[in-house]
Design brief:
The protein is 37% helix and 16% strand. It is α/β, with parallel strands linked by helices. The strands form 4 sheets. The protein has a 7-stranded mixed β-sheet with strand order 4-12-11-10-7-5-6, with helices on both faces. The chain has a 4-stranded mixed β-sheet with strand order 1-2-3-15. The relative contact order is 0.16.
Length: 460
Amino acid sequence: MLSEELPRIISTKLPGKKAAEVIAKRKQYVPKGVACVYPVVIDKAQGAIIQDPDGNRFLDWVGGVGVLNVGHAHPQVVAAIKKQSEKYLHGMFNIVTHSGYVDLAEKLAMLAPVKKVESGAAKVFFANSGAEVNENAVKIAKAFTKRSNIIVFSGAFHGRTLLTMTMTSKKAYAKDVGPLANGVFRADFPYYYRLPKGIAQKDALDYYLTRIKKVFEECAPADQIAAMVVEPVQGEGGFIPAPLEWIKAVRKICDENGILLIADEVQSGFGRTGRLFASEYWKEAGFAPDILTTAKSIADGLPLGAVIACKEIMDSVPIGVIGGTFGGNAVACAAGLQVLKIIKEENLIARSQKIGQRCLATFKEWQTKYPIIGDVRGLGSMVGIEFVKDPQTKAPATDFVKQLIQVCVRKGLILENAGVYGNVIRFLAPLVTTDEQLTVGFSILEESIQELSSKTAVFN
């Protein structure tokens, strides 16, 4: 089975002949704005292995950027898709009710760690993507609070629609397409590894809470803020877990001022962090979010996303304000129901914890050997390695990471960067990755770090 195989490069150079033809056609017909730096064409894939049309096999540590937690083409998901497609492909949920939408909504309503208000019940709305559910979560928060502004954070990524690219911190994603949306204000996310000069670790929490209060003073008063939107683990921002002490304080600020707390779990959901949702850690500590958004791994590659909140919040939205033609598509919902079964039956929550423990132990060991590794951090199997030119100055080793990705892919390991400076390698391997595949992946990555570290002067 392909899912049990190891990476293998047989072409004398990448891309191989057949893959090169596809990539050449891509350049001819697809806008260059849809960029890709990898010499990889996917011909078939299973588990954590991608095979290209030339027969090269790659170990996938990106997983569609967190989409494939149960692996490429999981046989049970494929079977569920086939079964549903033979009955019907689509029925717009505003027109006809289909049981897949209702059943998946029921399961997520019971599983999501959102704060309940009065009824003790949660409700679920489906859309097609992470950007769509984040945008709808903000609409729902505004409808419930009757307020027009939100607070987001430095390093955040929430999508590329008009509203969500405004919410997204990195403005390279909004180049030349302004003006952006109004009513979006930004505070500093607690990036403890890169505290501002002069701020001691013991004062970090107070500093970051002060930055939120500055928004109230300089942008909009607290009673005009509908919601704060937080990633439990920042994805594009560099795989930075939100400190629990900070979340606890943010929850208190929200409660004192009638502000909703939205957890953006588009990338961190469905087992990635050692819980079904990362905000389960928040709930266990006593401060659950009001609204949760999720997408990516919800349906193993089919377009689907969900907004989850208590009945009182969800039912505050006027008829017609939320909805969409394809949201909660029947085939995608069938895949989503199967994904939940697989996570439970294959014990992938525990597997995520085990993979994460192994990653953290391995990467932290490397940190003691290679000065170019400045920080290792994560939650569950959502782990990041931050590379720096110097451990004292912490100057980002951006070019090193760019070259590291290219060296690794030519050895059969697909990696992706992240972080404000693009100097973080993020680990998003499918949770079905085998122990042997992990071992080989670690070997390729460390060998490549050693190879490039010997040329460090090139990057300094």
